[in-house]
Amino acid sequence: MVHSVVAMYLVSLPIMLFRKTIPAWYLIIHISIFSIAAVFHFTSGVCPLTFGENYFRGLSGLSQYEGNFLNHYAEQFFHFSIPNKLVSNAIIALAVLLIVALIKTFRLKQRQIISI
Question: Which of 12, 29, 77, 89 is 20 to 30 A off residue 70, Cα-Cα?
Answer without folding.
Answer: 29
